[in-house]
């Protein structure tokens, strides 16, 4: 193992300065990730799974750094390189799939290099799920490492304006409103007549009793 402290940083390796990954180093790391992939790529986030992942990455880092021809790298740097490597592979798969769709079934624009091909072999399930997002009408775009889907026209949800009532419905609604208004007028008139009758009855009763007294 070679220890280098004054080296130009590698954009693929986080957690401090580190020299760029050599091809042999990439193969060593990919071999180790492949060995521990069932733990490292477990999507569960419970405490037990997280603890297993941490232990697995420590083992990967220890074995990587003890391998011949490798430069010392931290656990975080190796995790970052693997994460970026997966993003590049997914982006390449998405790009090729778009080209195939646009050319009506032709070949992809770019061939996957050995590194990308190896990544696909380590996480075939993730790549397969990415490919399944495509069909003859849908496309996928990768923006800042995030995949987004453009739905086909017939599947897009379009907010349509509220439908206008037909003339017949408007006329029926107006008739019902007029009928309610007429009924209200009739009820009011009936109530007014009853009040008059009651008033006359009270007056008649009052004068009748007054005459007796």
Automatic annotation (TrEMBL):
<feature type="region of interest" description="Disordered">
    <location>
        <begin position="156"/>
        <end position="187"/>
    </location>
</feature>
<dbReference type="InterPro" id="IPR028002">
    <property type="entry name" value="Myb_DNA-bind_5"/>
</dbReference>
<dbReference type="GO" id="GO:0003677">
    <property type="term" value="F:DNA binding"/>
</dbReference>
<dbReference type="Pfam" id="PF13873">
    <property type="entry name" value="Myb_DNA-bind_5"/>
</dbReference>
<keyword id="KW-0238">DNA-binding</keyword>
<feature type="compositionally biased region" description="Basic and acidic residues">
    <location>
        <begin position="167"/>
        <end position="180"/>
    </location>
</feature>
<feature type="compositionally biased region" description="Basic and acidic residues">
    <location>
        <begin position="1"/>
        <end position="11"/>
    </location>
</feature>
<comment type="function">
    <text>Involved in transvection phenomena (= synapsis-dependent gene expression), where the synaptic pairing of chromosomes carrying genes with which zeste interacts influences the expression of these genes. Zeste binds to DNA and stimulates transcription from a nearby promoter.</text>
</comment>
<dbReference type="InterPro" id="IPR001005">
    <property type="entry name" value="SANT/Myb"/>
</dbReference>
<comment type="subunit">
    <text>Self-associates forming complexes of several hundred monomers.</text>
</comment>
<feature type="domain" description="Myb-like">
    <location>
        <begin position="17"/>
        <end position="88"/>
    </location>
</feature>
<protein>
    <recommendedName>
        <fullName>Regulatory protein zeste</fullName>
    </recommendedName>
</protein>
<feature type="region of interest" description="Disordered">
    <location>
        <begin position="1"/>
        <end position="24"/>
    </location>
</feature>
């Amino acid at each position: 193992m070679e220890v280098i402290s004054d080296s130009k940083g590698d954009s693929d390796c986080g957690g401090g300065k580190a020299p760029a990954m050599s091809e042999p180093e990439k193969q060593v790391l990919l071999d180790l990730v492949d060995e521990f992939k069932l733990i490292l790529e477990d999507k569960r986030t419970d405490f037990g799974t997280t603890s297993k992942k941490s232990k697995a990455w420590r083992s990967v880092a220890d074995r990587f750094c003890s391998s011949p021809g490798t430069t010392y790298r931290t656990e975080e740097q190796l995790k970052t390189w693997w994460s970026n490597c997966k993003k590049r592979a997914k982006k390449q798969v998405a790009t090729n799939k778009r080209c195939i769709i646009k050319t009506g079934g032709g070949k992809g624009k770019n061939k996957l290099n050995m590194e990308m091909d190896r990544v696909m072999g380590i996480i075939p399930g993730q790549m397969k799920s990415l490919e399944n997002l495509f069909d003859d009408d849908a496309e996928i775009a990768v923006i800042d490492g995030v995949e987004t889907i453009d739905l086909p026209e017939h599947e897009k949800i379009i907010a349509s304006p509220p439908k206008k009532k037909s003339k017949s419905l408007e006329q029926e609604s107006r008739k019902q409103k007029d009928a309610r208004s007429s009924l209200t007028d009739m009820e009011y008139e009936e109530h007014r007549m009853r009040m008059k009758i009651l008033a006359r009855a009270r007056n008649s009763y009052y004068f009748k009793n007054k005459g007796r007294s």
